[in-house]
Design brief:
- The protein is mainly α.
- Helices cover about 65% and strands about 0% of the residues.
- The longest helix has 24 residues.
Amino acid sequence: MTDQLATDEDINALVALLQSDERNDLKSIDDLLAKHPDDPRLHFMRGSVLAGKAQPLEAHGAMQRAVEIAPGFAIARYQLGFFELTSGEADRALSTWGPLLAEADDNYLRVFVEGMTHLIRDEFEPAIEKFEHGMRLNQENEPLNNDIKLLMTEIGKLADKRGQSGDDDDDGDGSDLSATSLILGQFGGNRTIN
């Protein structure tokens, strides 16, 4: 399969292009995908770009393809699950993340998934503990730590709001939305399936 993968030079050139030319991002990825249709990194990059363009169905398909090609592509699996979670599909996210829970206890992605599992249940304190622990473990992916920090900030805001209102109604309007739905809705909100 390695002969079917784009070279590191191709990937680095594509990343540089994506950072400088947003107008041709999909075309550039698609051109490289035409040459290397089984490169999971390209499918993952395509899914990430499509998610940023608010095209959730196509983004989900591309991210899912990356994980199908390379089930051990851990960051793609994590991001696919997070995308599903922010799209309101917690059960699907948990299923996607399942293999990450088999990783070693000191694997930052496993710890982040454990935190997300607590967050799904509106268990803020243990979620934050897991997120903080995961960030300490994560020495290789600073942008992911930044995303987790943003999520923790939103959790803190909601926890403060709850403490001030003195009730468990997440947004004060009497609805049944969970706190997690409110938080994660800010990160996504587009369903990935019809």
